[in-house]
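We modelled the chain as a single entity of 118 amino acids. Its sequence is:
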Amino acid sequence: QVQLVESGGGLVQAGGSLRLSCAASGRTFRSYVMGWFRQAPGKQRELVAGVTSVGSTNYADSVKGRFTISRDNAKNTMYLQMNSLKPEDAAVYYCAAKAPFSVSYDYWGQGTQVTVSS
């Protein structure tokens, strides 16, 4: 079992930056694929960025060049650095973990709100 707790959300002006953190419990964190998802009101949840156990990353086209995902296995923590934020980035951001050989994300955090004012 993995428990995930997000932090770092808040209100920021367009063009500003925020850094989200996701703290994970458990000693198997380093073996999990980790991801950041977001869901805006009336929209489907979407994958923003993912990072594998060996540090390979992928991003949604809408955030490429602006967001950076990273992980610190020694601290059981994943991060999402968000720069040049736009109003359309506003959403509840969730971190998620996928166990080895799993076909879908198995564990989810409670979410953290990101609001971007124009």
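As a brief sanity check on the tokenised model: The radius of gyration is 13 Å. The CA atoms of residues 16 and 84 lie 5 Å apart.
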